[in-house]
Amino acid sequence: MPDPKPVSDHLPTDDGGYQLYKAAGKLKGKRAIITGGDSGIGRAIAILFAMEGASSLIVYLPQEEKDAQETKKKVEEHGCECHLLAIDIRKKENCKTVVDTALRNLGGIDILVNNAAFQNMVQDIQDITEEQWERTFDTNIHPFFYLAKYTLPHLKSGSTIINCSSVNHYIGRGDLLDYTSTKGAIVAFTRGLSNQQIHKGIRVNCVCPGPSMPLRYVAELCTNANAGICSMDSTYPIDNVDTGNGAIQRKKWLDGQEDKKPV
């Protein structure tokens, strides 16, 4: 399999190449919160949203400041605002701060993208520390609840919440037991919240990406996992590893209003 390069404003073509994303102003004037927006999938979301006309508040850990500044620069190149907030969303009071900051800097919220996640590959349950289990859940699912809870009073009909899950909970990755468990929880949370909020005209959806090459853990995935699980050819039979923007294209489509019914 060829080694795809990270991209932010290009999409894969059928022949294995890339083409510039063609924006159509579908998110013009929209305001988005994007967690984990400093790099990888989160960065690409912020950039493609900007290409469609949406300003954003990206949320990230303080140690990711350099990446966040680069994302801000790329978003602003497309003429939209990009506000930065370095904060640990594992604390529920910080999730409240995220929403308050978005309201103050953007003037409102139309889109919430729950994207931030943590994973650490461990082969056996006996080797997963209690601290790692708690950190994974505190990062990967608890903030989804708090951010949705604090954001929803400010959303209106036509607003959207998009949660980032993974294919892993369908596959059952043994070396990512805690991560896989949280991703399954995200799907269940999305379905329940969607059914709860749809009568208000608020859409809640979930995207489940496969391997995303720009993410930092790819090197670990390819070197440390056992051969039976790590082989992308066997675990993911379709020869197509996401470079980040496949999932982002789906997130952008879920945010738009055209030709869609709430699901």
TrEMBL record:
<keyword id="KW-0521">NADP</keyword>
<protein>
    <submittedName>
        <fullName>Oxidoreductase, short-chain dehydrogenase/reductase family</fullName>
    </submittedName>
</protein>
<keyword id="KW-0560">Oxidoreductase</keyword>
<comment type="similarity">
    <text>Belongs to the short-chain dehydrogenases/reductases (SDR) family.</text>
</comment>
<dbReference type="InterPro" id="IPR002347">
    <property type="entry name" value="SDR_fam"/>
</dbReference>
<dbReference type="GO" id="GO:0016614">
    <property type="term" value="F:oxidoreductase activity, acting on CH-OH group of donors"/>
</dbReference>
<dbReference type="Pfam" id="PF00106">
    <property type="entry name" value="adh_short"/>
</dbReference>
<dbReference type="InterPro" id="IPR020904">
    <property type="entry name" value="Sc_DH/Rdtase_CS"/>
</dbReference>
<dbReference type="InterPro" id="IPR036291">
    <property type="entry name" value="NAD(P)-bd_dom_sf"/>
</dbReference>
